[in-house]
Inverse folding.
């Protein structure tokens, strides 16, 4: 007699212990900008204070498992570094933590209300028109029409019998994410750069899984602006920089121009006002207030983006009332949107706005 045999469930305590510690390790790595030695020092301190390990599974076991499982390795100088496998796990962890468990859906596609040629068959047919490609003809439905129109005895297929399958028009979106790495992102005892990194990682993983035909470019801006790879995000550090928003916007526009996609958008995560411009080899700086020379250049770029139909969504991770006037002026010049938000819930807001923008033709 066939059936099921039940036995007592014995959990794999060692695996559970590793997973618990590994999830914390990934979080700490973001704070240490990928420095494994510093992250493990933090882990040991946390273990001493909160008792993370047990007599059966200690911190030494965890470090050994990190090596065995391919999460850390030694570089040529004997220093421990994380591997691409860990970088991928950090992105997945950020996605799960910020955006929740997302099911894999249709990839790289965004439905609009416009019918036309595309990659997905629609839900209905229409009459054949001159110029329709032969491969779009719905043969089964066309033959059925011929039988209805001419009888089933003699198969006669005329042009009026032909129907083609409607296809949904699909678009792709190119996004640039700008991250402020000026010194103020760690001032006043508040770590603002780590949540920004986590949002960038989660957004990159979301696009990779759910919209792989979309593009995401990430850039950082301080005194200057430069693009970074997604794999570089965990290693980001704040520098002794002012905030050259103009350089960031100019680079974002250039990156989007190269994408040659009509559906484009910029997301900017910052905590302060523009305080810097580069004029030739010279930096023009004024960290004391809203310098009109700097502000006017910034607003001019916002207007240019509006003319190019590139909406900018600003996420101001600071709630200083005196910043609101500038952000509101910038948003009005661009026709985009702005959010004044603390660090808590930043990922949810970015995700909601990204998905909302994908539901319309930009």
């Amino acid at each position: 007699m066939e059936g099921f045999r039940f036995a007592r469930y014995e959990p794999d305590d060692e695996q559970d212990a590793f997973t618990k510690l590994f999830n914390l390790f990934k979080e700490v790595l973001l704070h240490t900008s990928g420095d494994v030695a510093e992250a493990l020092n933090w882990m040991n301190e946390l273990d001493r204070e909160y008792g993370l390990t047990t007599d059966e599974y200690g911190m030494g076991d965890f470090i050994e498992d990190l090596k065995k499982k391919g999460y850390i390795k030694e570089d040529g100088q004997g220093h421990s570094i994380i591997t691409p496998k860990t970088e991928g796990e950090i992105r997945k962890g950020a996605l799960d933590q910020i955006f929740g468990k997302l099911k894999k859906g249709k990839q790289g596609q965004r439905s609009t209300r416009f019918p036309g040629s595309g990659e997905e068959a629609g839900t209905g047919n229409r009459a054949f028109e001159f110029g329709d490609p032969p491969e779009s003809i719905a043969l089964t439905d066309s033959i059925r029409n011929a039988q209805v129109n001419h009888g089933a005895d003699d198969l006669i297929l005329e042009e009026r019998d032909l129907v083609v399958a409607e296809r949904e028009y699909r678009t792709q979106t190119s996004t640039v994410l700008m991250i402020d790495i000026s010194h103020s992102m760690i001032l006043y005892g508040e770590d603002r750069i780590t949540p920004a990194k986590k949002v960038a990682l989660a957004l990159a993983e979301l696009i990779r899984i759910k919209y792989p035909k979309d593009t995401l470019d990430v850039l950082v801006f301080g005194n200057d602006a430069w693009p970074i790879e997604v794999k570089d995000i965990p290693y980001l550090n704040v520098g002794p920089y002012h905030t050259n928003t103009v350089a960031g916007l100019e680079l974002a526009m250039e990156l989007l121009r190269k994408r040659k996609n009509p559906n484009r958008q910029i997301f900017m995560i910052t905590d302060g006002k523009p305080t810097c411009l580069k004029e030739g080899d010279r930096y023009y700086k004024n960290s004391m207030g809203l310098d009109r020379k700097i502000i006017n250049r910034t607003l001019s770029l916002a207007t240019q983006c509006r003319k190019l139909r590139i909406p900018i969504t600003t996420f101001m991770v600071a709630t200083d009332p005196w910043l609101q006037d500038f952000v509101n002026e910038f948003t009005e010049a661009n026709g985009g949107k702005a959010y004044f938000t603390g660090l808590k819930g930043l990922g949810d807001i970015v995700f909601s706005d990204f998905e909302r923008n994908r539901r319309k033709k930009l």
